[in-house]
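--- STAGE predict ---
source: upstream dedup step, 1 unique chain passed
mode: sequence only
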Amino acid sequence: MSKVNDIKNKMRSQKTISPTFALNEEVGNEENKEEINVPRKEEKKIERKRVSFDLRTDLHKELKMQSLLQERNIYILIEEALEKYLDELK
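--- STAGE serialize ---
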């Protein structure tokens, strides 16, 4: 084998876990697998607008961790928090 192939094989054998990999990896028991993978009908119908804003790094880290733990997208967590806050204002 060539040196390049040796390096490629070594890189492939190393386990690195990216956020994308962690989100795609199955967690929990097999019984709940069907419930987790079922897409929500309401999510397909909702029209969304891309926004950009600054957020404190500590809040962003906590949001990412909750997203991983709950196996949900960050934007859904933000939408739910905003809906709850706006409902409290009414």
